[in-house]
Write a structure and sequence with these properties.
The protein has about 850 residues and is of the alpha+beta class. The strands form 9 sheets. Strands 1, 19, 20, 21, 22 and 23 form a 6-stranded antiparallel beta sheet that branches. The relative contact order is 0.10.
């Protein structure tokens, strides 16, 4: 297994990147001679500071260390600049992990009482926690995640200690097995609790978002994001990562992307920003869990690529040079370093590049330096949370190789340390300590335009929580005419959080000079558009908006309005931006069930006669949606559209046919036969295309003919009669659905299509539809990549799910083999029992080559 980040118990999702202990088919030969590995004793804070190598122009300073803080994993600054720290003191107290479920976790508040920049006062706000995961300040207290509970913790008597805990959710860490509870498997590790610009609280490794309404908490489903840590930029776009995949982002609000079930591949969320995974540590790194594998370490013993990427942070402060604003910093605790990425804007998207050539922003020669989180401080500086812990890997997964590495250098000792640092620009003093809790609401409104994102975010939270009607006029004025576009943006979202936006304000802001502000106003206006024609009229004026950001949001927002004028505008947006995959897909997501009519509209428009960049892809995507809908009469109409194209419109015909033929409905997988789309009769249009004298049309018609069938089709196999499930199998299917959603759905997704860079699809997968013998083995012992799924190669390590009993495994597998149009046989508990007995001595995960030998 690849080396893990600190807290495999915290950072890793159940479905990937884990295997138990030693794989039996590997020789664990150390690649770095013992004499070349320096010792790793715990260093006093002042000496640890000397171990850092930071880029010129910056310096690192100590903010807190033991005994003021222990095992910190997350921090938050309150309105007075006090530092709230989440301490996970139960994590790996020894190499066996004994005692990790003791109630020793805590939330503490640190203060600098003498103004020297170091925290010297410690107040325990809340203790007695078991492996707490996340912290977010709200309502004068904090949201605290102690799986499976998400608590609202408050101090009602002013003594600085929590005296009231109110449950917000009871499933914040999904359970591996309901019989054992969430703590049965520490890899269910929801974390982050980031309050976003849109007033929702998002998490990494969790599929729900939360919103503070002042009363009951609002909850909505959202997509799975990364493993450990989550951040936002100035415009509310989310950033996250996973152990070996250092940086991903959402270019668009993800809630739009699932609104068209016929179009599952909409782009814009979970986008990989950087594919070069090289890292450049300052010391040798043999202490990674698979350090014996080829390619894990360089010849000089340093870590070659990310193995524990976590905690991405978009720098939004005002202390660093201007060119650093908006850069993203990423932790690599296994390599004892922090990387800096520069983002290059490309229309509505961007790509990341390494800020330095074969070097890092910050690296340490101290093996115990474990940066596990990063934050923007109220002083504009970059704050580093250092677990300062010798052991990274959870005891369930430590290999014999790593165990020896730990013992050789005594890394299992001195486990109750912890450090917090800040990185400061040497050319500019750090900013002042805030006193926002004592400020007036009017001063909070002014703080919404502060150059430091921490001040803007905190002021917005305070205003929304206070919901003071006396601030509404000032907020509206700020949203409409504030000098700083970021201030106008925060003013707008603050009003939305307070439920105080009106049509008149939105009409003005929709025409804001800054495209990001215009886009936000469009998005926020959606609930009002159906009953406010003047607001819709204002929106439609921006159909020709030159800014890609505004065009993108306009495409999403118009899809919420089901009326002809909106569709006409969507057609214009599509024509102007067909070459932009994100805007193109934004239009398609809003056309659920109307794709064919939209196609007919476009093809009747003479402006679409000329082929322009992306036009063919857009028409093809619409045709793909119509075919995926699988309604015979609509497929016939689609084929007729292709046939009726004139010779001068040949590109349109080919685009439609390519869209249809690229659709991948259920098809044969190995020895499993699944029916193509059933039509009522042979389509006359398809027959005409097959007889065409144009070779290109004949070839496409032949491919399409293989995707459809009809009664009496020559050469067609007899229609497969799907054997109905028995009552017992139906019961098992229902149980499997529930278990799948809580144990597998976060990565493979409820729709079974998986996630790029995270989990392969289950829909139409030969591994799901093929031999149940193989499938049971994967669940019992895990799977080690590479593995081919539907023509794509996935590098993954899926853990065993043997915590489930035979009935539960049979239920999950029955569900995935009969859901999403699958018609193969259910799985019986007796088969699971038999395979479990046959493989009881196996300890390592299966490989593709091994599985393919099993019938």
């Amino acid at each position: 297994m690849r080396s893990r980040l600190f807290l495999l118990a915290i950072l890793v999702g159940l479905n990937l990147w884990a295997q138990q202990g030693d794989p039996g088919d590997e020789t664990q030969t150390p690649r770095v001679p013992r004499e070349l590995i320096p010792p790793a004793p715990p260093l006093p804070p002042e000496q640890a500071l000397k171990s850092f190598k930071v880029q010129p122009g910056f310096r690192i300073e100590l903010v807190a260390a033991e005994p003021v803080v222990h095992n910190p994993i997350q921090i938050a600054f309150d309105p007075e600049g006090r530092l709230w720290v989440l301490e996970m003191r139960g994590y790996m107290p020894n190499i066996e992990g004994n005692g990790e479920l003791e109630k020793v976790g805590s939330v503490v508040v640190l203060e600098d009482t003498d103004g020297d920049g170091r925290m010297d006062k410690r107040t325990v706000f809340l203790d007695g926690l078991v492996m707490p995961r996340a912290l977010s300040l709200v309502r004068g207290g904090a949201l605290v995640a102690e799986p499976p509970m998400l608590w609202l913790c408050q101090d009602t008597d002013g003594d600085g200690k929590c005296d009231r805990r109110t449950p917000v959710a009871n499933d914040y860490a999904t359970e591996a097995d309901p019989k054992f509870g969430a703590r049965a498997n520490h890899e269910h590790t929801s974390n982050g609790l980031l309050r976003n610009l849109d007033n929702w609280i998002y998490s990494a490794n969790h599929t729900a978002r939360f919103r503070d309404t002042g009363g009951p908490w609002q909850r909505e489903a959202t997509m799975f994001r990364g493993q450990w840590g989550i951040s936002q930029d100035d415009f509310g776009r989310l950033f996250y990562n996973s152990n070996e995949d250092p940086l991903r982002a959402d270019f668009v609000p993800s809630q739009y992307l699932g609104r068209n079930p016929h179009y599952r591949s909409a782009a814009g969320a979970n986008v990989q920003l950087y594919d070069d995974k090289a890292v450049w540590p300052a010391r040798v790194n043999p202490g990674v869990n698979r350090g014996y594998r080829t390619g894990q370490l360089r010849p000089d013993g340093t870590l070659a690529t990310f193995t524990a990427a976590c905690a991405p942070l978009v720098y939004r402060g005002d202390n660093f040079p201007d060119e650093v604003h908006g850069n993203v910093f990423v932790c690599e605790p296994a390599g004892n370093l922090i990387k800096r990425y520069v983002l290059e804007q490309r229309g509505v998207s961007f790509k990341a590049t390494n800020a330095y050539d074969k070097a890092e922003f910050l690296a340490s020669t101290d093996e115990r330096f474990r940066p596990v989180n990063l934050y923007n401080g109220p002083d504009g500086c970059l704050y580093i949370v250092d677990l300062y812990h010798g052991i990274l890997q959870h005891h369930l997964y430590i290999t014999s190789y790593l165990r020896q590495q730990i013992l050789d250098r005594g890394l299992e000792k001195h486990t109750d340390f912890g450090r917090i640092y800040r990185v400061v620009n040497e050319s500019k003093p750090a900013g002042p300590r805030p006193q926002l809790s004592k400020a007036s609401p009017e001063e909070w409104v002014k703080a919404l335009s502060h150059p430091n994102g921490w001040w803007r975010d905190t002021a917005q939270r305070l205003l929304v929580e206070r919901n003071d009607s006396t601030t509404i006029a000032a907020l509206k004025q700020l949203a409409v005419s504030g000098a700083n576009p970021l201030g106008r943006l925060h003013g707008l979202w603050t009003l939305d959080g307070m439920r105080q936006l009106d049509v008149a304000t939105l009409q003005k802001v929709i025409s804001d000079p800054h495209p990001k502000v215009r886009a936000a106003a469009m998005r926020i206006s959606e609930p009002l558009l159906k009953n406010q024609p003047d607001l819709l009229n204002e929106l439609l004026k921006h159909t020709g908006d030159p800014a890609p950001d505004a065009q993108l949001q306009l495409a999403f927002t118009l899809g919420e309005v089901k009326e002809p004028r909106a569709e006409e505008a969507m057609a214009q947006v599509a024509r102007q931006n067909a070459q932009d995959i994100y805007i193109r897909d934004a239009v398609i997501t809003g056309l659920d069930g109307r794709e064919l009519e939209f196609l007919e509209r476009l093809l009747a428009d003479k402006d679409w006669n000329e082929k322009k960049p992306g036009s063919d892809k857009f028409l093809g995507a619409l045709a793909q949606c119509v075919f995926s809908e699988a309604k015979p009469d609509r497929i016939n109409r689609l084929l007729e559209l292709a046939v009726k194209r004139l010779e001068s419109e040949q590109w349109q015909r080919l685009a439609l046919l390519d869209g249809i033929s690229s659709t991948k409905p259920p098809s044969a997988k190995g020895n499993v036969k699944i029916r193509p789309v059933l039509l009522n009769a042979e389509p006359a249009a398809l027959a005409a295309l097959e007889k065409s004298q144009v070779k290109e049309l004949q070839e496409r018609a032949k491919r399409i003919a293989g995707l459809v069938t009809w009664p009496g089709k020559p050469g067609a196999e007899p229609e497969v009669v799907v054997k109905p499930m028995t009552a017992e199998e139906q019961k098992r299917f229902a149980q499997g659905k529930e278990l799948f959603l809580i144990s597998c759905g976060a990565c493979h997704q409820p729709h079974g299509m998986g996630q790029e860079g995270l989990a392969p699809p289950l829909v139409d997968s030969k591994w799901v539809l093929g031999s149940p013998q193989r499938l049971v083995r994967i669940v019992l012992h895990g799977l080690h990549g590479p593995i081919n799924v539907n023509g794509n190669t996935f590098q993954l390590d899926m853990p065993a799910l043997d915590v489930f009993d035979d009935d539960q495994i049979a239920a999950i597998l029955t569900f995935v083999r009969r859901e999403w149009g699958h018609t193969v046989s259910p799985v019986e508990p007796e088969l699971v029992k038999t395979v479990r007995a046959e493989t009881e001595k196996r300890e390592e995960a299966w490989t593709e080559a091994e599985l393919l030998k099993i019938p």
